Fold:
Amino acid sequence: AHLCYNMISLCWKGINLEKHMGSQTYLKLVVFSLVTSHSLVVLMAVALNALDFRGNVTGYNSCAVGFSAVIFSLKYVWNSVSPMSTTNVMGINLPTKSAAWVELVVISLLTPNASFLGHLAGILAGVLYLRYAKSYPSMR
Structure:
């Protein structure tokens, strides 16, 4: 189910973002999201471990490979540039700008084994892209 949801989500966000940005810029966004989100996961896991944070949240002693972080980054970017002002998350209409944050919490509650840190890192990568990276000429 998780893989199916991710694939559908990638198709929806990917098609819309590629139409909005163009193929080259979209590819740069995906690569930026991949490198940045996974770097952030490692940095946050190391920091939480150094702070002696207990529990399964840190992911420090686990191996996680996946594209969910990138999808959360794409979700955040699409929700920020989308012409729609509201979106539907599990039957609840929300402002598009807050949808990724609500999904982060909802997914963490419904599937506690999903990587909270990975999803959070994806959103943060989207924030970094919109605030800094997209303004560089090489990212357009």
In short: DSSP finds five helices and two strands in the chain. The mean pLDDT is 85. The CA atoms of residues 87 and 93 lie 5 Å apart.
